[in-house]
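Consider a concrete sample entry:
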Amino acid sequence: MIKAGEAVWDYDAAAVIVILAIKHFMKVIKDAAFGTCSFHITLLDCLHAINKALQFGFLDFSTFDVEEYEHYEKAENGDFNWIIPKKILAFSGPHSRSRIENGYPHHAPEAYFPYFRRHSVTTVIRLNKRMYDAKRFKEAGFEHYDLFFADGSIPTDTIVQTFLNICENAEGAIAVHCKGNEEFTQQVIIKEYHVILHISLRS
């Protein structure tokens, strides 16, 4: 028997709890894209990622604004999150105009301008095919780059190096977006920290 506070457990019950906990930690998570998943993430991987974020100062529980996070992650409010605070923001791919399609809200580039300006975003990187005219960002004073590669595929070394160069030379924060209406996992390599961040972009 095992006594924990006022609760008393027998060894068999404790063993079952431990086994279930291990199975939960090892459960594989995959993105929502169609086709065979070539990369799997476990809950333990997620906990390691949180630990890395704490080490590098990407996350501070004492200042993390849960209400703001939950507000902006909703599609109707822009569907975006800071991956690295004040440096890299992942956001839903803009469309040519703001509208509701099959119950899902799409946003025109202009919908993001106020937030981007308030938070010193100076550069936009598009990873998917064109759904809007880049001039709309450029004429509003933002740098805009296209680094297209197929949804769910691996970017070429040239694209990765170009992405790093943009990150290192941008005057302010960078907003990155991919394909609209689909979740997929995008690898962003941050050379300064020698770490690969597997960023799930809900976009």
Observations:
- The radius of gyration is 20 Å.
- The chain has a mean pLDDT of 78.
- Residues 11-26 form the longest helix (16 residues).
- The longest strand covers residues 183-190.
